[in-house]
Specification:
The chain has three helices and nine strands. By secondary structure, the protein is of the alpha+beta class. It folds into two domains: 51 residues; 75 residues, PH-domain like (Roll), CATH 2.30.29. A four-stranded antiparallel β-sheet has the order 1-4-5-6, with helices on one face. Strands 7-8-9 form a three-stranded antiparallel β-sheet. Helix 1 packs antiparallel against helix 2. 20% of the residues are buried.
């Protein structure tokens, strides 16, 4: 007889590999832009003249783009008995378990998602397929928390003409 998995007190998921890739990409972008800024010496081509302000602007643009790349890897999922909190790239969701219908992680999906009871879907960008076992552990933990919430809820009263 299969045993039901233990319900974790809390589940936390972050995209480990995506964070590493984003950090490397951000470092590369900043490095390239700083090199371009340094090599953009004070000169005039006859039409356009480059100065110190241009060098600072190019380096600042590199830092700005690098920060945007890092933001992609900042997604996170935190869940406990009270509900689930999702932070994707720019959007945050705080959902009670009563609003969650299912935790989905299809075979060929890049990330997991929450199906809500109102028919909407919330992507969990922190639970990436590239993280393999960590992603599966997070999905199993989320499903266990959802099942524990459902088990603790009283049965709904029967409908008036329920057979």
């Amino acid at each position: 007889m299969p045993t039901t998995p233990a319900v974790p007190a809390a589940v936390t998921a972050v995209p480990r590999r995506l964070r590493l890739v984003c950090a490397l990409a951000a470092a590369l972008v900043v490095g390239v832009m700083v090199v371009v800024a340094v090599l953009l010496t004070s000169s005039s081509t006859g039409v356009v003249s480059f100065g110190l302000a241009d060098q600072v602007a190019v380096a600042g643009l590199g830092v700005f783009v690098g920060a945007g790349v890092l933001l992609v890897g900042a997604s996170r999922v935190d869940a406990d008995a009270a509900g689930v909190r999702v932070r994707n790239v720019l959007v945050r969701h705080e959902l009670p378990w009563s609003a969650v219908g299912a935790v989905r992680f299809d075979r060929h999906s890049s990330w997991a998602s929450l199906e809500l009871t109102n028919g909407d879907e919330v992507s969990l960008l922190a639970v990436q397929a590239a993280d393999r076992e960590r992603a599966l552990d997070a999905v199993e933990g989320l499903r266990a928390l959802l099942a524990a919430h459902r088990a603790a809820q009283p049965a709904p009263p029967p409908l008036l003409y329920d057979d």
